[in-house]
Amino acid sequence: MSTDLNRAIVERFDELLGASNLDALDDLCTPDMVNHSLAPDRPPGLAGTREFLAQSAPRFGDTGWTTLQVIAEGDFVVQHGYRGGNWRGGPLFGFDLQPGEYNREVAFLYRLHNGRITDRWAVRDDLTMLRQLRGIRAAIA
To answer: Does 140 reside within a domain?
Structure first.
């Protein structure tokens, strides 16, 4: 598949965050997709990603990218930038967080095969998010 097509597939996948209709996942991803960034108690394959997007993602109140750079070569696409939202409140990473705005640096990495996502990784600055939502305080040096 072409690099431009792979970029477009990842862009369509990205638009599903916060969407109520997740039917497009079946076209965008392989059934045995490995989402390396999901919690270990999520179901394997595409089912785990679908469950996360339906149940957990809405809590992040995603407002999208404030900056974004997309790098694509062959079967790999990387998104890097800052993404924010309006956290709805509640537990996250063992902290009970109050509602609030956040904006954190993230990188999402995708591997595609024949025009479908087979793997996804996420590198997120969760520490910054926890600080912004007053779950933890920054230590003063």
So the answer is: no
**Residue 69: CATH number of its domain:** 3.10.450.50
* Residue 141, in any domain of the structure: no
Does the pTM of the predicted model rise above 0.85? yes
Alpha carbon distances (Å) from 128 to 33, 75, 97, 124: 29, 31, 13, 9
Q: Are 110 and 119 in contact (CB under 8 A)?
A: yes
> What are the residues whose beta carbons fall under 8 Å from the beta carbon of 123, sequence distance 6 or more?
106, 107, 108, 109
User: Per-residue pLDDT tens for 25-82?
Assistant: 999 999 999 999 999 999 999 999 999 999 888 889 889 999 999 999 999 999 999 9
How buried is residue 32: exposed, middle or buried, by Cβ count under 10 Å (0-12/13-18/19+)? Answer: exposed
118 touches 111 (CB < 8 A): yes
CA-derived radius of gyration, the chain: 16
